[in-house]
Amino acid sequence: MKSKLALLLALAAVLFVFAGCADNSEDIVGIVGETPIYRWYYEAHLKKQLALYERNYGVDLSEPAYRTEYKEYKENRLTDLIGITALKDEARKMGLFSLNSDQEAEVDKRYLEYYNLAMSSFLEKHGTDEKGYRRAEQEYIDWLGANSLTPERVRSSIRDEYVLSLLYDSLGKARGATDEEIRAYYEQELINQREKAESEPGWFGENASVPIYIPQGYAETARLTLNFNKQQQQEISTAADAAMKANVEYIEAITSSGETSALANSKKKASDRLDKAFENVLERCYKQVEAQMQPILEEARSGKDFMELMRQKSEDKRMLRYFVCETSKHVEESYRAAALELKNPGDISDPVRLEQGVCIIYLVERPEPGQRPLELVYDEIKKSLSFTANTALDFELWNEYAKKAEDEGIVELFIDKL
Q1: Integer Cα distance of 53 and 8 in angstroms
Q2: This prediction's pTM
Q3: 169: helix, coil or strand?
Q4: Class of the CATH-defined domain 219-365
């Protein structure tokens, strides 16, 4: 969960950077060429920088005693945003914001990946029943709001990010990792992962972004999932709430009247009855989903490509691979047990019950323990390092285009609105 939240926070930083063109209905505090800087975007940037300033220097510039300094600081924070806005304006002039259907589909895919990643983090915290899902979704919306984002702004921000990647390609600026950098990363990560494998074997399945050193006893798996539908979720939630309430009333009766009292005995019977009712509802819902899964399982075992079947039928659209061992904690116990029973690549489990529904598990492979050769992970490392390199490129180009825009006289900042 920590690794997912760390990535989520990193994504939030990226989204903030690219979110400046998201909502035409809002007030603007500046314009570069024909591209506006929105007030909400500027204020989010200002708030973030003020917090960093206070943390570093112990001074809250928004206090009345710092009125003069605060005014200058606010103006400087607005100028921070000239470079990224100038790059967007360049992309507009080149027509790069007019995406074709395939490019829009890629933006949709990236948005879905972001949403699924965000929700998976919160679902781990709240659970995947109906109430848990609602709480997770609300926390996700609240989290976006705290970062001055909305779901609509997120997609617009991802679209802006995609367009700027096209601009970098057009300018011949996009960077990739060098062979030397890839080899250095491989050697260092090999040391790190080998140390973790010896001290904490379960760490690998949850944390290794590029698997280089694989501990003993792992299975690489994929899963096709069918979740409880809304009606089933409601039935389970209602039965669970009733059972929980009856159990609380039983405990209260013991406290007030004693365990052998008539009141406690009555409440115990009610609690037992509702516990059994909950178990019956849950069992019935599981059997319904298992019946839905059966023809899919038969299709999978008939030889159809499992990954293609996942894309078509699975309700978990993340298409994740799960590395699982005896000590893995990032998957449910039922999943871990069923996955480790699979022996040969291509084996498919019987339906496995999860908190949110039912899945079938596909054994991709049981990788040989030990070091994976560089040529096997070369492209994965290159992709990871290239992302980092192009993040550094962002700042370099922002500075370059900020100066260019100011020299061309196409920057207008509305300081009086701050």
Answers
A1: 23
A2: 0.55
A3: helix
A4: alpha beta
